[in-house]
Every structure is written in C-alpha cells, then in structure tokens.
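Cross-posted from the bioinformatics board.
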Amino acid sequence: MPIPLARSFVTVVFSTLVLLLVCAVFAPSSLSWGALSGSLPFAAIIAIVGLGQLLVVQQGGFDLSLPGAVSLAVVIATHFPQQNDALLHQAVLLSIGISLVAGSLNGLLVSIFRVNAIITTIGTNALLYAVVFAVSGGVPSITTNLLAEIAGGESLGLPNSVIFALAGMALVSFALKKTVAGRRFEAIGANPLAARAAGLNVRIHQMMAYVYAQLLYCMAGTLIAGITREPTAFQGDSLLLPSVAVVVLGGTSLLGGRGYPVSTVIAAFFLNQLSQFALTVGVPFSAQTIIQALALGFGIGVYSIRWTVNRKTTTGTRKVEDKT
Amino acid sequence: MKHASLSKYLALSVVAATTAFATTGIAKAEAPSWCGPKKATLGLLDGYGGNSWRQVTTASGKQTVDLCPSITKYEYADGQGDTLKSISDIKSMAAKGLDALVVFGDAGPAVLPAITSVFKSGKVVVPYRVAVGGKDGQNYSKFVGASFENDGESWGNWIKSVLPKGGNLLFLSGPAGNSQGLDELKGLKKVLGPEYVFVNQEPFAVTNWDPALTQKVLTAEIAKNQKIDVIISDFGPSLVGALPLFAKQGKSIPALATSDGNSLGCFWQDNKDSNPDFKLFTVATGNDNVRLAVQWAVALATGGTPPSEQVFKAPAFEDSVSGKPSAVQCRKDLPGAIYLSSELSAEDQAKAVGK
C-alpha cells in the first residue's frame, strides 16, 4: 500500500523539480527571491483551497460552492470592519460562523438527503453569492491595516500566507493520517459501502468533509483580503479550477478515497510557478493559457494511464465501485 | 394651466441645473438645451453593475436625468455580467413602454440584435462607451463612445515630458484583446517614438482588471525587467495592492500614467517620500461618459437639442509634477473606491458606493 503514496508524491515532486530547472534556464528571474515572495502568497491560497477541495473529493464529492465561499470571506473581512482594525476579529468570527452554516448545508443535503454534490454545491454557491451582494453590493472595499499585516507580512523570512498554508497542510495531514477519525474518513471515501458494513458512521464523515472544506475556504478568502489591498467581490471565481487541478495533480482520485495533502500543496506551488514562468517568459496570453492546459493534461495523463492498468488487473473492485 | 406649470418646471429646472453645474464647478451657464418639452420615460441599462465605478456612473446618469423635468419616469437594470439577462433587460424595458434606453453594452455585439429590434420598434436607443457594432440610425439612434485613443495620447505626452530621452514602459490593461487597451496603445504609439520600449508582451500585459492577477503580473515583470521607467495602466486603483511589490524587491515605485481613483491618490501621498521616482499622472476615469449618453437620449426622446460632442474625451486630471490641471487628490475620510475626477460630488459618490 505505500507504493501509490510514493508514486503521486514522486510524480509531483519530480514535475516541480523539472519546472524549477526549466525556470532556472529560461526565466531565471522568476526564481529570484523578490519574484518568489510576490508569487508565493498566491500559491499558498491555491494550496489552502486545494486542501478544502481535497477533503470533499476524497468523499467522492465535488465542491462548486468554493467561489462563493471565498468571495464571501473576502467581502466580510473587508466590508464588515471598514478599515477599523478593532472589528477585524469579529469579522473573522462571523466568516467562520457562516462557513459552518454553509458547510453544514452542503453536507446535510449531500450526505443525508442524498442530493447530487454538484447540484447541491452550485445552489449553495448561488446562496453565498447572494450574501456577498448583500454585504458588499458588489463593490470592493479596502483591507484593514491589521489584516494586511497578518496576511501580507513576512515572518522568519517567509510570507505569512505560506506559513498559514503549511500549517493547514500539517493539520490536514496529521488529522487524515494519524487520527482515528481521519483513518475512518479515508476508509469511507475509498468505499462507503464497505465502511458502512464495518459499522462506521458514513454520513457524518461525508457531511463533515464539506464543513472542513468551508473552513479552509474561509481561511483562504480572509488571506486574499489581506494580500490584495482592494480585493474585488468576486475574488473566488478564479480559484475553482485550480483547486480541482491541484487535487488531481496531487494524485487524489476524483472517485474518492485516499487523499494526498502534501502532494496537493506541492502541486499548488507547481501550478503557480508554472503561470509565473509563462508570465516571465512573456509569451502571449493565449500561449500562457495553453501552457497551463498542457501541463494539467500531462499531470492528469500521468495518473490516468497508470489507472487504466490498475483497472485491468483489479476488475473486481472496479465493479463494486461503479455500483456505488 | 398645463402650459403654465410646464414653464414653471422648466424655469425650476434651469435653476436646478445652473446650481448643480455651479456647485460641481463646471462652467456651463446655460439651461440644459438637450432637455426638450416632450414628456418621455427613460431606462438606464448596465451590462454589469457590480463595482464602484459602475455605481458612481449610475448615480451620475440618474443625476443627469434629474436635470430634465420632461423625463417622467426613470428605471435602471443591471445585467449582472450575464449576457442573456442583459438582452432580456433591454427587451423587457422596451416592452414596458419606456421611450428611451441608454445601454452600457458590456457584452459587445452580442446585445446588438436586441438593441436593433428595440430601435426598429421606434424607441430611442443610445449605447455608450463599449462598441456594440452596427451603425447610427440603422441599429440604434446614436452611439456615444469614449475616446480611449485620446487617453493614450494624454499619457504619451506626459511620459514624453517626464522622460524625454525614452525608456522602458510597462503597459497593463484588462482582458486579452479588449478594444479599450488596443485603442489606448494606438494613442500611445502615436505620440511615443521607438526610443520608448514596451517591455510587456504585445499588445499589453493582461490583468483582467483583477487586483490579484495584476499583482502576479507585476511580480513577474518587476523580476524580469531590471528597469521599468513608467507603468501605464488603464485602471489605476487596481494597482494599489501591487505597487508595494517594488519595495519588496528593493526598488522605487516608478512613474505611473493611469486613470484616477481616490485610493490611488491617497496611496501616492503616503508613498511619494519613500519612492523618489514615483510620479503620478491620471486622466479622468470617465464616469461622466454616461452624462453625455443620457443627454443624447433625452434630447432625442424629448425633442431637445442634442449635445455638440459625439464622443466622450476624458480630460487629464492629476499631475504630480506640474500640479495641472490638478495636484494629486486624496480624501482620506471617504471610501477609496470613489473617483474625484467625476462631476458627481465626492459625498454623493460615497453615498452611491456606500452601504
């Protein structure tokens, strides 16, 4: 069983090293400390939303409410305090509260009422955007200085947002791999039927996946509010695809099961560095998009080819999974 | 009796208009000649109303409509960035019986069929700012565009004045291929010779006017280019979050030619001392484009005299070097997301964008 873990990890680390090598040759400036400290916060954001998406994907779900959740955290962190540092902690608590509600809503509908995850989360996304408009009227507002310092500052030579992302990764990894609840969570993702037969509370774990995910989106949104001085009210929109991309690049199957938080975070760095590479090389915008698409296709291809081989050898298991 | 009250209204409107113009510091003494005697109703349609620029623009449009008492009803619809909703907004406003429609056609030619059919049914239709294709008198009554080329020329002339020997320029605009950016580049190239090198990819660095993407793009450009002398951007406020990156990479913020915004003005005042190269030049961000469009629509619908201008030319606004036409302005007490270049008073703008 350790072999698949090694494979996804090795693949993503290897790809990242190749990318760094290519950067060093063709766009050395993209590896300068100035460039990295400017771009790493965005990698951190992708990593955090990726971790959230990872937990949902592990349960065979799909969370499309991410844009609304992130945008809402952004507007609450900027509009609620209206540049008053003293109100910031209230804003963050409010965000967390809303995340719990939105996550429970997603989770309840998907796990208890068995509504399709995509449909549920699209609906929740619309609801969250309604709140975004109610709070902000669609207008950007300026970040409080305190939040700009916390999210945009640096400690120990690293951008704070990166520290947040690493802490998130450590927490998710530890919880998934080293706690009883985490082991159950993964087992249920791999095979809910078998897990139920083994007496695990499948529904609760499936539901909680959405709640944890919302909390991570909330963290990402609050950080974006601090990193960009005047964030728009739609800052989450551009994060949905990268969030799924890093989960897939990190080696987690979209059908659920074992999750790879560390690989996901490395994949986020990879994806961000790739776009930074394209920007630095200065290729036309169309080519930038194509480069990213090709890299993604390659990443997904690597896993799907192996996957087909797996399918041939373990036809029996596949059939059971298909029926779920 | 009716006539008497009408002339009373007219007189009142003259007074109102004069005071309004006087308070906003515009030397327009005459009554709105574009406001004719015929009663009419007017709708203002936005393709995407979800940012402060649009809210200030909408409030400016409303203020302009209020100057003309012949307009008996005024309605507003926001397409919310959804092309289908924009189209159905246009059609339903016409179906409701409004006489004149002023349309911000964000979706471009996609809304042209709807506009054309409404125009053919006898309504006054004035698309503005974003080109929707088609022709005046065939597809709509009158298109009131903005001269982005003019903006480019203003920036170019200023760049020449602060950097006479040429240098490295970085030009940032919105989504790939947007016509505003292309027109601005045309204006820039008209004024600037080959000694001015654009270090960005052709035709401009794509930012989607998104502050996060702007930050990423600027990070890459600063790292790549040892020397950037001037940054040109058609949406100044989206740069505010990105400019501190220069300090992170140990460089001074360079000169900046852009459009105005309160947050940008305040940012300049806070940072000019620590960044010796940070000069700022802005053109008005163009909220008042809507005024010209509304005047045209009202004139055509009420039988007034149409304005003489056909195209909105954004005037130069702030110049930190010469202080003309105005020094850099900052109102710390008001939201960052307002535009002091707009005719709408800063307080009214704050109300329009505030909650």
